[in-house]
Write a structure and sequence with these properties.
339 residues, mainly alpha, Leucine-rich Repeat Variant, 2 domains, 69% helix, elongated
Length: 339
């Protein structure tokens, strides 16, 4: 079917398949290998983006015709082909159409819903911010239809918090907030708390050149972005659910938030950690007492007055004190809520 007039052929097919008596046309089209042909257009390296968009539109028409038609697409390795198109396409419109098609294939298709879900998880390593945003958005829609969450979703999802694109972070945080209702909650919370205190891979190793040091600093910036996003996500989780707040406290979140507050390499991380810590201080009297002891009266007074700007007046000694704090609130504390 590939050729000079492919676009016209696809438009003509669209007219037939969208007709009021389209059922027979659709059956004939699929019996003649129509689904495989459309998927071949998507996977062919020489296909134009307009043609790929046309093929996706036709596949969406097929998918909307019912469960057995969705199954035909999936049986033809359609999930993989469409997922690759979503991850690698050069045009946003094509990516958006591919994400809509994958969501359609997951709906009312119990035999292949899990396949769509798991393949989208593998796609979270893609480098395109727009693709990643759409993958996360589609995963969020599919996840809400499922009774369980796959544990393989946790690590790549937390890694997406390193993105420098806010739209990607927003979709990732929405998915994390949804996953608190599933069996991966404990692993997810533990992972988020750990991100507040990232391990520097080259810490305390042999001397490195100035050029290598600069490369390491540049490479560490996404980790700092991830740290700030983790602090923000923890705040949103805690504000929604008091029981989650207690679970986070038992994981030692206060020590880690104080550490992030003292990290002067990334002001946004300090701001997010301060705002999150403020929630715990206001909500739990025992947390307020312990935090005041660590900060000292002067810094704590500034923190209570305006948490989001306290980092601006923090001196080096105070920052080091927060970075190296050894506060332990994970066990033996009365986490009574103050409201």
């Amino acid at each position: 079917m590939l050729g000079t007039f492919l676009g016209l052929q696809l438009k003509a097919l669209g007219i037939f398949l969208s007709a009021s008596c389209h059922d027979q046309y659709l059956i004939n089209f699929l019996e003649d290998g129509g689904a495989l042909t459309l998927l071949d257009i998507l996977s062919h390296s020489q296909s134009k983006d307009d043609d790929k968009a046309g093929a996706i539109k036709l596949l969406l028409t097929v998918s909307k015709a019912g469960r057995k038609y969705k199954e035909i697409i999936c049986e033809s390795h359609g999930v993989k082909v469409i997922g690759e198109c979503l991850s690698t396409s050069n045009r946003d419109e094509t990516k958006e159409a591919a994400s809509v098609l994958l969501e359609s294939l997951s709906h009312g298709n119990p035999r292949y819903q899990d396949q769509v879900y798991k393949y989208l998880i593998t796609c979270m390593t893609c480098s395109s911010p727009k693709s990643l945003q759409l993958i996360l958005h589609t995963l969020c829609i599919i996840q809400r239809k499922m009774k369980t969450a796959h544990y393989s979703i946790v690590e790549p999802l937390l890694n997406t918090l390193r993105s420098l694109h806010l739209e990607v972070q927003d979709e990732a945080i929405k998915l994390i907030l949804d996953l608190k209702h599933y069996d991966v909650k404990a692993v997810l919370l533990t992972g988020l708390v750990a991100l507040l205190r990232p391990i520097k891979e080259k810490e305390h190793q042999h001397q490195i050149s100035k050029e290598s040091e600069m490369t390491e600093m540049t490479g560490s910036f996404p980790v700092l972005v991830q740290q700030a996003a983790a602090a923000k996500t923890i705040r949103l989780l805690a504000e929604e659910d008091q029981e989650l707040s207690r679970e986070l406290l038992s994981l030692g979140v206060i020590q880690h938030l104080l550490h992030t507050m003292g990290n002067r390499e990334h002001p946004d991380g300090q701001i997010q950690a301060s705002l999150t810590l403020e929630y715990f201080v206001v909500s739990f009297p025992v947390v307020e007492d312990q935090v005041q002891r660590v900060m000292g009266s002067a810094l704590f007074a500034e923190f209570k007055n305006k948490a989001d700007t306290v980092y601006m007046n923090m001196n080096e000694t105070e920052a080091e004190m927060l970075l190296t704090n050894q506060i332990n609130m994970s066990q033996g504390n009365d986490f009574t809520v103050l409201f």
